[in-house]
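Intended use. Records like the one below are meant for learning the mapping from a protein sequence to its folded structure. Do not use them to infer anything beyond what is encoded.
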Amino acid sequence: MVDLLINLSQTPLALAMATSPWVVPTMQSIHIMSIAVIFISVLLIAMRASGYAWAGVSVRQTVARFAPWAWVSLALLALTGIVLILAEPIRELLAVSFWIKMVLLAVTIVISTRFLRGVKREAAYAEVDGPVNPGLRRNAIVTIILLVIIIFMGRFIAYDPLIWGPLSPISAIYAG
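Structure written out for the chain above:
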């Protein structure tokens, strides 16, 4: 795998992106701003679904207002993430933090999709005084916690060998 990633990092496209003074910083900036938009959108939906905010607005209205921002930002995250991986494949794909982030992101997307389907399906969520139950509140809190961990894991990618030590395959590359 390491040989494949080394070869990938030596392709003309990867070299052009990695050595460009603007590609990686610009993609990282867009990536970070997209994370912020997702976090705020999900936080606002979670606060309404938990009954902590906007008592005069239905959960369905809140989702209709903020979910599109999260989905568009998720698409931007995917696009900028691909560019960042192509620019630095070894740093990204060998990082333990990267794979933890990806697994948690997949779990968060599944939880969010199930929640959104429920909001569309159940008429009670269209009511201004719609349901706030312990399960909904728990899922909202879990989703926010997952997003915070995803944000930290994304930042930890740059420091993977320092954080994970010998558990990080990148440590062996630096040692070897």
